[in-house]
Amino acid sequence: MPGTTETSMARSLQSAHIENDGQQNQRTILVVDDELLVRQMLQDCLEEYGFAVLTATDGVEACGLFMKESARIDLLVSDVLMPRMNGFYAYQVMCRIKPGLKAILVSGYPNGADMINEANINAPEFLSKPISPKELISKIHAMLGNV
């Protein structure tokens, strides 16, 4: 992705100190990204904060997992551009299964938010890569509340 590498993403996620009061959130987040390192770093960050995390490598895998686990998934965090099925379409499919699903769509492309608007997707939030863990946790709390 232009301007985004696995190394810069890892550095960004590792360098931020996230305050965790030790409270278990009892919330499940589905993380979808085709880059292994990004997926692992997001999973580690969210688990450190007390979230349960499910992961998928692309939209097809994510939709299959979502069909089985939709009742317990509270939030989707998905890359936008991935092979087989992009994050836009995966989110639309998941919303048919669970209307009102909360989502954060992520892209390494500078115009990622514009792409979401052009696709008429009402994703509540958008983040640009590399992701700041503090910003991610802040957005998750705003969307799910402090649990």
Automatic annotation (TrEMBL):
InterPro entries: Bact_response_regulator (IPR050595), CheY-like_superfamily (IPR011006), Sig_transdc_resp-reg_receiver (IPR001789). GO terms for biological process: phosphorelay signal transduction system. PROSITE patterns: RESPONSE_REGULATORY. Pfam families: Response_reg (PF00072). It comes from the Bacteria. Keywords: Phosphoprotein. Residues 28-144 form the Response regulatory domain. The modification 4-aspartylphosphate is found at D79. Gene3D superfamilies: 3.40.50.2300. This is Response regulator. It comes from Oryzomonas rubra. Residues 1-20 are annotated as: Disordered. PANTHER family: RESPONSE REGULATORY DOMAIN-CONTAINING PROTEIN, STRESS RESPONSE REGULATOR PROTEIN 1.
